[in-house]
Every structure is written in C-alpha cells, then in structure tokens.
C-alpha cells in the first residue's frame, strides 16, 4: 500500500531523530494488513510531488491533546504519533505549522491548557526547536510563519481558546487559514468533528490531504470492518451497553464472534434471566440486549459472555473478592472482572481468528484485583499477532491505556489514537474531517 511504503521511507530517512522514541505499532512499521481493498479514496501527503511541498507553508492538524499532571505530560503517545508526518514534510522542504486543541477551555486562554509542554516535547522528539506561537490566529502568527525557513516547525497555541473553533465559524476559519498554502489533517482523534481546524480550513486551503497517521487509521479500522480476513472477532467492553450498542450491532454484522466484557456484561446476563447482585445494569437496555442476542442467533454469529466472574463486596481496590459462576452471583456482590475460566474460553475462541478488533476493557483494570481479565486478554491478542499473523486492532481510550500499561502495545498490529472517532468509523459513519479532504 502506497502510504505505508511512504511512511517507511520517511522513517528511514529520519531514523536518527525519531526512531528511538517510537514503538513500532505507533509509527506504522509493522507489516501492513493483508486486506484486499483500496484505502478510502482521499489524497495523502504521499500523493503530492516534491514540487507541491517544497517551500510551502503547511498547516498540519495534529492531535496533541495529551494527559497532563500540571505541566508534565503523562503520556506522549499522540505527540509521538504525529512525528512521521512532520518529519516527512520537513524532509521535502516544507514549513510546518502544527495546530491542535488541548483540554476543554471554557472562556478564552487558560495557562493550564497552553500547548507549551507539547511544543517542548515535540522539540525533543524532532531534535530541533519547535517555536510556540502566542496565538493560533492574527498578525503575530502570520509574522512567525512568514519568517520561518524550510524545515522549521511551529506550533500554534490551543485552537479551543476560541469558541469559534468548535462552532466552525467562517470568519475564524478564514483567519486560521490565512498564513498558509495547504492543509494536512493528521488528527484522527478529532476527525469525527466538523470544527474549524479539522473541516473548515479545507474550504480555504488547497490541497487538503491526510497525513500518515490519519491514513493508517483509516486503512486499519475501515479496512478491518470492510474486508478483514476471516474468521473475524470483535471484543466489546466497557461499562455501559448504551455507549456501545451501535458499534456492537455494526460489528455483529461483520464479525463471526463477538466477545462482550466489562460492566455491560451484566445487562446481558439480566436479559438472560440471571441474577446479577449489585452489578452495574442498564435496565432500559435489557430488551436491547435480548434483541442483540436474538440477532446473533439469527445470523449464526457467536456471542461470548463470561462463564465465571470475579465479584466484590464493594467498588473498592481493597474489597473482598471471590470467583463465582456467571449464573451464581451472590446478592450484595458486584461483578468487576472476568474469571480465569472465561479467559481460557476467550483464548480458545480467538486462537483461529485472523482479524480481531478490541474496543473496551474487560473489568475495572485500574484496580489490581480486577485487572487480570483485561491484561490476560491483551496478552492473548499480542500472542496471536506474533505467532499466528493475526491482525489486531486496539481502539478506545481505556483499552488503549490498558494495552500500553501491559507493555504489549508494540506487539499489536495497530493502536488507534481516536476514541470517539474509532467508534464512529467502526459504526460505519462518515467522518467530517475525512470527507472534507481532496479525493485521490
């Protein structure tokens, strides 16, 4: 696939500055999935000639919305994921200006949401100074961009310091686009939003194309659902059926097996007429769970629910626990993780799968007593990737966090940087930040 080849070439050319910081799965140097399909028909930076990039002032929408502890970045994955596109543009002689949001500023600029820590970390990763502009629009920004040299990198201040960003207000969009010649969207995590910096600027900047990260996300996520190699399994976890029902139904149409975990399990168990103690249940979705199970039976698909569960007498990291059968949860106890027999059954079910998509954890993995179900499943996926050549795709914030914590992220085929965007793509929805880009 053309863009994967371009990523590898770009990385080879810039390995001295970036490779030491990047897990293979993040930078896309694992082997590409063996899907027989064409990437969604949108242009990538790899489709542009050297002449179209040299000396051009390029606005790149990245997603550097990283978690912070004060001014300290606690997880720089999203910044590292942006490096290949920036390195590639630099290598072609472009002048790169990165824009992004950070957090949820309520009323104008707030120091705690400044992109200064992100500019500093990006400087370290690139091995050069990334100039932080004091704003994302205005004369001072234009002056900084105009005075920049080929290969320079600038980071604009938080776009959400302006309410007009999320409203996609045309006047603000025009000001944001004004200093630049072209646009690259590499922010999959915000591609499901029609904001000024994701969709609006495409009306003023041409060409407007995808970066390597966005293209890679589309290839793996859209490709897996559309043409993934069979047998295909989906793992859908998390606390609530209500937040996952549309993606669950969409995946049921495509997958041979669906493993359900997390708090949503207990709505399904109640739908089967079982007692669930004080476990989390969405009573309004019990009938929905029944419909999902009936649909699976009609389609000849397998829904895999836990056979044993780790229960606790309180939602607490130090709670008393016991392992019980899924049909024998005691009154006054709540389920917080899969039991060991469930993990064995999941391993058996996944052993023959060629494509697996995971979205959501199996339990409250933040508490050590209830982490085994999630981390053991992550290990299973990592092993079938390495040993069987399966394509494994991890999406959603909690499942990505668990995979990173497990130390096995580098063994997966793809770790998605988008939470809501990955869910909407898996549901089959169109993403405004993608639709607005130039067709190939």
What does this structure look like?
- It is a single chain.
- The longest helix is centred in the N-terminal third of the chain and has 17 residues, at 2-18.
- This protein is elongated.
- It contains 17 helices and 17 strands.
- The chain starts with a helix and ends in a 5-residue tail after the last helix.
- Helix 10 (245-254) links the parallel strand 9 (232-236) and strand 10.
- By secondary structure, it is an alpha/beta fold.
- It has helices at 2-18, 24-27, 50-53, 77-91, 116-126, 139-147, 164-167, 170-177, 212-227, 245-254, 265-271, 286-299, 340-350, 372-388, 397-406, 420-426, 432-435; strands at residues 57-61, 68-69, 72-73, 95-99, 130-132, 153-155, 182-185, 208-210, 232-236, 257-260, 302-304, 308-312, 321-325, 334-338, 355-359, 391-395, 414-415.
- The protein has a 6-stranded parallel beta sheet, sandwiched between helices. A 6-stranded parallel beta sheet has the order 11-10-9-15-16-17, sandwiched between helices.
- 38% of the residues lie in helices and 15% in strands.
- Residues 1-19 form the signal peptide.
- This is Phosphoglycerate kinase.
- (2R)-3-phosphoglycerate binds at residues 78, 160, 193.
- Belongs to the phosphoglycerate kinase family.
- Its cofactor is Mg(2+).
């Amino acid at each position: 696939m053309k863009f994967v080849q371009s990523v590898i070439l770009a990385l080879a050319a810039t390995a001295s500055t970036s490779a030491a910081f990047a897990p293979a799965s993040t930078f896309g140097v694992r082997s590409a999935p063996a899907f027989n399909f064409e990437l969604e028909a949108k242009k990538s930076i790899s489709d542009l000639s050297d002449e179209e990039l040299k000396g051009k002032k390029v606005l790149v929408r990245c997603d550097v919305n990283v978690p912070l502890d004060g001014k300290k970045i606690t997880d720089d994955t999203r910044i590292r994921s942006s490096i290949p596109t920036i390195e590639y543009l630099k290598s072609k002689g472009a002048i790169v200006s990165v824009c992004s949001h950070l957090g949820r500023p309520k009323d104008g600029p707030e120091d705690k949401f400044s992109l200064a820590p992100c500019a500093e970390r990006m400087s370290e990763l690139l091995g050069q100074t990334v100039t932080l502009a004091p704003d994302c629009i205005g004369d001072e920004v234009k002056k900084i961009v105009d005075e920049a040299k080929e290969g320079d990198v600038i980071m604009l201040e938080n776009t959400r310091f302006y309410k007009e960003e999320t409203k996609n207000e045309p006047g603000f969009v025009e000001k944001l686009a004004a200093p630049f010649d072209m646009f690259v969207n590499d922010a999959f995590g915000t591609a499901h939003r029609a904001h000024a910096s994701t969709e609006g600027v495409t009306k003023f900047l041409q060409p407007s194309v995808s970066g390597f990260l966005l293209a890679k996300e589309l290839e793996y996520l859209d490709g897996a659902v559309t043409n993934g190699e069979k047998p295909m399994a989906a793992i859908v976890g998390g606390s609530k059926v209500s937040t996952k029902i549309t993606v669950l139904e969409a995946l049921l149409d495509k997958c041979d097996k669906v493993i359900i975990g997390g708090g949503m399990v207990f709505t399904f168990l109640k739908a089967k007429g079982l007692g669930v103690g004080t476990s989390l249940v969405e009573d309004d979705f019990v009938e929905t769970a029944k419909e999902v199970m009936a649909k699976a039976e009609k389609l000849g698909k397998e829904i895999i629910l836990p056979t044993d569960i780790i229960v606790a007498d309180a939602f607490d990291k130090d709670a008393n626990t016991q392992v019980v059968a899924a049909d024998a949860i005691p009154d006054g106890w709540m389920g917080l993780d899969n039991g060991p027999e469930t993990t064995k059954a999941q391993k058996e079910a996944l052993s023959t799968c060629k494509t697996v998509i995971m979205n959501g954890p199996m339990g409250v993995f933040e508490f050590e007593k209830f982490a085994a179900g999630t981390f053991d499943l992550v290990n299973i996926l990592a092993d079938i990737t390495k040993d069987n050549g399966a394509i494994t795709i991890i999406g959603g914030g909690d499942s990505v966090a668990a995979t990173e914590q497990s130390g096995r992220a580098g063994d997966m085929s793809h770790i998605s940087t988008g939470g809501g965007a990955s869910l909407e793509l898996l549901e089959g929805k169109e993403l405004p930040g993608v639709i607005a880009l130039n067709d190939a």
